[in-house]
Amino acid sequence: MSFKKLLTSAVGRKLTMGATGLFLVLFLIVHVGLNLCIFANDGGEMFNRAAHFMGGNWVPRVLEIGLFFFLIVHIVQGLILEMSNRAKRGIGYEKSYGNRGSKWYSRSMALLGILILIFLILHISNFWLPNRVHQGFLLGEEINLYDRMKVTFSIGWIVIVYLIGLIALAYHLMHGFQSAFRSLGVHNNKYNKLLTCIGRGFAIIVPLLFALMPLSFYFGWLS
Amino acid sequence: MSFLEMFDVLNERLIEEGEDPIAFDHDCREGICGACSMVIDGKPHGPWAQNTTCQLHMRAFQDGDTIIVEPWRAKAFPVVKDLMVDRSAFDRVIQAGGYISVNTGNPADANAIPIDKKSADDAFAAAACIGCGACVAACKNSSAMLFAGAKVSQLALLPQGDPERKTRVIEMVAQMDKEGFGSCTATGACEATCPKGISITNIARLNKEYMRAILSSEEA
């Protein structure tokens, strides 16, 4: 079963993790672009129009199904890999290797992923779920997402959870971005170095832009 | 005095005292056979970079230091006794596909097949793997991907490896899974630990070879 091996072998599982991870990276680019609309500083008009387009057009809706599918595959494969890998050692070492010549975040991808998942559950229940429920499915009216953000991000603990989730995302991407390309077979060092640089930039800039949203509302930086 | 000579002295003393000597693997004591497998103070092959246990010397430590020595720890490498582990899992991974087909009879002329220098150099660098298992011992997942990556790359880079190119990678990865090695998280611990400096680039090449072999396979 050739295709089954892509999902079940040690190498195949990493290939699916890399491919789904890169799809999620594309989603982050779209999401952060939409979020930046709040900085038009027009009382949320541009942001709400963008949100209306994303919710009302069938193309993003179809892509949204794919997004959830890939997200679930990424989470399930990640958890299976982590549990399976942990079981491979057997008896542990008396003395730890310390940093093992590697970065702590590269050894903590599952933990960072779980933190991101907790953040995502809160984020989806804050915005996506109420918006989709109202947007034509049940109640036939749209939520003013900009106003909802204003209310949500006036609560201190929510802002803190968002920031923790985004820091976890930053470190997850710091390793995951370039590692995904390696998993997909990019072995040319010229590209690996370039992808590592792009990955580091992406891992810093994108979560920072995301973090600007709750911070801007909480500290009243927007008029 | 080398680290293994220190063990020789220790074992002589234990035998004189009527106790069992400590069992440990060793063979060439020249850093090329990969037999000496010890985790020394938490690091496979000890504190020196790109070095095997047999090439480690006692000057790496201070007088009076307590040194903790452990065997490789991985389910795929069961401990035989003390510091000896059974690494035959590596042999079976090689048997699964780490070979090439050659005609019998007189040896072929050397250099009869042109190979570009870069490929020859990369293949040679991958072939430097001595199969010691330090990559498995160092990896948080007990993954053998650096070992398998080196073996697959070495043959994938050379025209002699072409006939079994697709089946090799599929069979070796399947055997790796069967033996109970973990998968790669690309932390780089294996590369940092490898006594021969094998690059994790070989793991990415293995991933590419695997993907190509699976996608182009006729098997449904």
TrEMBL record, chain A:
The keyword Protease does not apply. The chain crosses the membrane at residues 21-41, 61-81, 109-129, 149-173, 194-221. It comes from the Bacteria. InterPro entries: Cytochrome_b-558, SQR/QFR_C/D. Keywords: Membrane, Transmembrane, Transmembrane helix. The keyword Transmembrane applies. GO terms for cellular component: membrane. This is Succinate dehydrogenase cytochrome b subunit. It comes from Arachidicoccus ginsenosidivorans. The lineage of its organism: Bacteria, Pseudomonadati, Bacteroidota, Chitinophagia, Chitinophagales.
